[in-house]
Amino acid sequence: GGLGDVLGGLPPAMAANGHRVMTVSPRYDQYKDAWDTSVLVDIEVGGRVETVRFFHCYKRGVDRVFVDHPLFLERVWGETGSKIYGPRTGMDYTDNQFRFSLLCQAALEAPRVLNSNSNKYFSGPYGDDVVFIANDWHTALLPCYLKTIYKPKGIYKNAKVAFCIHNIAYQGRFPSSDFSLLDLPDNLKGSFDFIDGYHKPVKGRKINWMKAGILESDRVVTVSPYYAQELVSGEDKGVELDNIIRKTGITGIVNGMDVQEWNPATDKYLDIKYDNTTVLDAKPLLKEALQAEVGLPVDRNIPVIGFIGRLEE
Fold it and tell me: What is the dihedral of CA 23, 24, 29, 35, to 10 degrees?
């Protein structure tokens, strides 16, 4: 989806501007270029200690880091039909909080423990002077752990967090009693506290990960200036977080396009490559090929309209 596109295209663009850039995501599969770094880290989650390992590859100026733990892999390798967040629409896996808490803590460790030397301009660990860009509710605990575990020890003193909202509809709402599973001090409870009219996942008081991410980060951003306006326009469009976002402020930065990946002159998915000089010859042929592939009448004079959007209740 959109988040995948951003994580694919934005980091190489930042690296091209001279930044040192690392992405951290769960290791849901044996990605063919990612190698085991053999770096292990023990993380305390839900009252028990879990060991994660880091896999790594370097592409287009970016350190791609994958957090390896059986709970990430089995979601995709098991019987779940490669579903990452829940067995079906509207249902969460019961271990989601556990898994994404693990991801957040691993992401805080990665810049300090991984000794990456792929880039000729940078070498060694990233160290403490970093900016974390946390994306959507799954990463909302990162600023919370940063504030309560690291900064009191004098680690990441200058580090900042930008929280990016890609889709306000998914907020990570869980039963209020689950706060105790997150290994956070009680003084952060207010940032999570949430009451809504829905009875899912439970009736009444809940915790809301996204609310906490918004409140505990240094800056809140989203994927376009128009979406930023929409999120503060009312309870409906802001899905009950509009008041919180009005309080913190939000900056809309339009999603860019990766011109290397979406380049018709080199696109491996196009049977006929084209540029601005050959586009008028190539497009009718590509249209006919598409019509044939999807079983439409093959006629280059019929307009074909494509729509990219969310199919959702």
Answer: 80
Output the pTM of the full model: 0.90
124 secondary structure, DSSP code: B
Helix (H), strand (E) counts: the chain: 9, 11
Burial class (CB in 10 A: 0-12, 13-18, 19+), 275: exposed
Q: Mean pLDDT for the chain?
A: 92
Amino acid in position 216: E
What is the residue range of 191's domain? 2-252
pLDDT in tens, 92-120: 888 999 999 999 999 999 999 999 998 88
pLDDT of 282 reads 97
Eight-state DSSP code of residue 293? H
Q: Using an 8 Å Cβ cutoff, are 25 and 67 in contact?
A: yes
Per the structure, the count of domains in the chain is 2
Which distant-in-sequence residues (6+ apart) come within 8 Å of 258 by Cβ?
5, 8, 9, 12, 13
Q: Are residues 91 and 224 in the same domain?
A: yes
